Amino acid sequence: MTPVLYDRRSLLAGGGALLLTGVAGLLSPFRAEDLAPTRSMRGGANNYLPGAPVVERIGGGGFWMSGTVRRAGDGTPLAGQRIQIWAHTTEGSERDPWSHGATLTDAAGAFRLEMPRIVPAFGQPHGHLAYDSGDFETVFLRPVMRNARQRALEAHFVLRPV
Amino acid sequence: MATGPAHRIRAGLVWAVVALVTVAPLLAAAASPLLEWREPVYVVAGFAGIVAMALLLVQPLLAAGALPGLAGRRGLRSHRYAGAAALVVVLVHVAGLWMTSPPDVIDALTFTAPTAFSAWGVIAMWALVIAALLAAFHRRTRLWHLAHRMLALVIAIASAAHALLIEGTMEPVSKVAACAVMVVATVAVVARVRIRAAGGMSR
Question: Cβ(A46)–Cβ(B110) under 8 Å?
Fold first, then answer.
């Protein structure tokens, strides 16, 4: 299990989300139906190369990208969803095709892909993830590492059917 | 002009400090482990940014004639050359970043980047471009002096914010020191020259 990391941004965002969902929960009888879809992050699609192949591991590994994929509304875990991952790592830049790879979610809607260590580029140590398979609306994420020494990063998708 | 030993020691000290504050960030960045994982164009782009900061750091000192041996007209002429050089290295900085990752630079230039430092960098760049254009084509009126000083403040503060928010090849201590000297020197010179201008000075 990778440790969950909190920084000011995620605390603010989380606190805000909690407040919103909490208030919404009080106002709405359809509590379980309220899971909002994840919105694409600014810059999330930068250097995206469509169709990254499903791989066992990107390059030599040493770093873990993980997360979950759920359906908007009821939060049902989505199995078999293809998540594409890329980053500037010790083995290449974001634009290098070998920096890109994809993995599928398991029965619990979780994914986990080993990749080379992410190193700071363009001012921040960050990764990119995409859901772009067509069954749900496309989402691009750009999670940022709290510090460059981290060897793992998480990103979570809540997808809205098209 | 005093030329005694005390003066020479003081001149040597001033230049030593200026050399330290401008060269240390370059040497420290040259030792960054991140360079190993960057392509040459990206490395050049990064260092062009650090050189720009070193130039912007000496700019207020040259304008004020505060650097020993570069007082008055010589200082002013050096100020113009350094300004032109700053513009060139900033263009190299942006062009190199563009070649490294076009979408990130487009996001920055359109103020849609996820990172705040991108916006600060672009603000500083445009302020520098405007300052250079005004310096090249505008008469030195009182309004010009005011505008030039305001732009100098924007450039220094936005450049410092840009550099400080970036996690990159620059080593933190030398980066903070250079940013601090750049901002303090710019504010000090702008404030001082403005008082003289109010008394009817300025060229």
Answer: no
How many Cβ atoms sit within 10 Å of the Cβ of residue B196? Answer: 10
Amino acid (one-letter) located at B179: C
Q: Which of B114, B117, B167 sits opposite A120 (nearest CB)?
A: B167
Going by C-alpha positions, the residue among B81, B121, B63 that lies closest to residue B97 is B121
Give the percent of chain B with pLDDT over 70.
93
Contact B104 A43 (CB under 8 A): yes
pLDDT at B195 over 60: no
Q: Which of A47, A95, A120 is facing B34, going by the closest CB pair?
A: A120
Tokens of B5: 């030993």
d(CA B86, CA B95) in angstroms, rounded, equals 14
Whether the complex's predicted ipTM surpasses the cut of 0.90: no
Q: Could you say which of 2.30.29.30, 3.40.30.10, 3.40.50.300, 2.60.130.10 is the CATH number of the domain covering A33-159? A: 2.60.130.10
pLDDT, tens digit, for every residue of A60-69? Answer: 999 999 999 9
